[in-house]
Design brief:
heterodimer; A: mainly alpha; 7 helices; about 65% helix; about 0% strand; globular; B: mainly alpha; 4 helices
Chain lengths: ~180, ~80
């Protein structure tokens, strides 16, 4: 049975697919790219778009479709000139927050996901999806904004504790 | 302000000039505090990575939906025709 109602993010991405993916597909097909390549590039572009528009509340993005197509073209040319697939979206200057950002390996992320999933969800909602305290309180059924704020900091302390525990086992040194 | 909140304000550059200087001094003198700061910085990086991972999964779900559900048939045909040539 097909889903009838889309979530807010789903609506955003469906809209982006409908308006921008055909243009990206044309662009990539003309340059000898496959459907899979178009899909990968487009999805990378959507991540960048999401972070710039939603997370950074960038209201300077007026024509979203054009913006996404622009990012996709940039990613394609970057990949084409490097003559190899982009290893990680995180290496792109567009997504770099700081040169000093700590390295997060997939191992560490998986470890924290297992040890602190609920906290990670809450912190992601606040820091990545940019929910305000009222929205956070509603989403996670807190009694109010104060309670949500307290829990937010408790969760940071929990993740810190998880990382400290992991660093004491020194697993990563043997990876 | 609790310690965790203070570390956050320091890392995000939201402390006053005086409070930042005070924090700089505390970090030099208190190894426990400086250790917490490093871990908290890593915590924010993990949140970012996790967020990105989740959003990618959402985008992939939308992709699967648009290339399988009947309500997106016209869109699907439009795309597949581009690569048929």
């Amino acid at each position: 049975m097909e889903k009838k109602q889309l979530s807010k993010n789903e609506g955003l991405f469906v809209n982006a697919y409908q308006k921008a993916f055909p243009k990206v597909a044309h662009f990539i097909e003309k340059r000898g790219g496959t459907f899979e390549a178009a899909k990968d590039i487009f999805q990378d572009a959507l991540v960048i778009y999401y972070e710039k528009k939603i997370v950074q509340e960038n209201n300077s993005v007026h024509n979203e479709s054009q913006y996404i197509v622009g990012i996709a073209r940039h990613l394609w040319f970057k990949q084409y000139h490097q003559d190899k697939p982009l290893r990680s979206l995180d290496s792109l200057p567009e997504l770099k927050v700081s040169e000093e950002e700590p390295l997060v390996t997939e191992n560490i992320l998986r470890f924290v996901e297992i040890a602190g999933k609920k906290c990670l969800e809450l912190l992601k909602a606040f820091y990545y999806d940019d929910l305000n305290m009222k929205e956070l309180a509603n989403k996670f059924s807190f009694s109010g904004e104060c309670s949500a704020t307290t829990q937010k900091y408790k969760c940071i302390e929990k993740i810190r504790g998880v990382l400290k525990e992991r660093s004491l086992t020194k697993e990563d040194f043997y990876v | 302000m609790c310690e965790t909140q203070q570390i956050e304000q320091y890392l995000f550059g939201n402390l006053s000039h005086e409070d930042k200087l005070l924090m700089d001094a505390k970090l030099l003198l208190d190894r426990d505090l400086s250790g917490k700061l490093i871990l908290q910085k890593q915590t924010y990086a993990i949140i970012q990575q996790y967020g990105r991972k989740q959003i990618r999964a959402e985008i992939e779900n939308v992709h699967r939906m648009m290339f399988s559900e009947s309500r997106f048939k016209n869109f699907r045909n439009k795309i597949l025709n581009i690569f048929k040539k």
